[in-house]
């Protein structure tokens, strides 16, 4: 029975069973990869991943995600080994070098790590600065509240003293008016 890719004309098999494809371990490049520079201030949080990839000069030409697109069209019940063999055939037919896709995946990982560190550092600094501002503002609020309480106490104490004084004057005026009335009656 012909497989899906044979029917699509993408793969041609002239053998019984799956071919033996030696698995090659993925190794890091012999040179130190270029560390991307991601400016967290320039990251658009509306589309964070696309924004990061744009800053990291990541294009989709030889994207590791091509493998996912090919995996998604394979039958779900296909074994991992069969999927890997099928994908290897598809890539070969399409002239896509798996090493380029692997390098793209590694580069994406480096860019994302750098972006995460940059975003965390920028936001941690902003958080620390804002927390310091909040503490300063709390101190100012406490000072203002103390001044308010002091002013309220001064107003209350003054009002009490003034009322006592006004009562004393009122009593003295009443008394004096009584004295004035007695003098005028004599």
From TrEMBL:
Residues 127-154 form a coiled coil. The keyword Coiled coil applies. Keywords: Coiled coil. It comes from the Bacteria. This is Uncharacterized protein. It comes from Dysosmobacter segnis.
């Amino acid at each position: 029975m012909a497989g899906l890719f044979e029917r699509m004309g993408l793969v041609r098999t002239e053998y019984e069973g799956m071919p033996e494809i030696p698995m090659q371990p993925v190794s890091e490049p012999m040179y130190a990869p270029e560390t991307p520079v991601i400016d967290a201030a320039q990251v658009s949080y509306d589309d964070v991943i696309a924004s990061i990839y744009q800053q990291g000069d990541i294009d989709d030409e030889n994207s590791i995600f091509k493998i996912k697109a090919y995996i998604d069209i394979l039958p779900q019940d296909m074994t991992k080994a069969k999927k890997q063999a099928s994908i290897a055939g598809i890539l070969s037919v399409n002239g896509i070098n798996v090493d380029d896709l692997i390098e793209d995946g590694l580069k994406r990982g480096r860019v994302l790590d750098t972006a995460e560190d940059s975003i965390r550092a920028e936001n941690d600094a902003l958080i620390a600065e804002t927390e310091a501002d909040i503490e300063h503002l709390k101190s100012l609020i406490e000072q203002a509240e103390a001044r308010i309480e002091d002013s309220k106490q001064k107003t209350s104490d003054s009002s009490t003293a003034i009322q006592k004084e006004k009562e004393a004057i009122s009593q003295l005026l009443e008394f004096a008016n009584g004295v004035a009335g007695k003098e005028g009656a004599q």
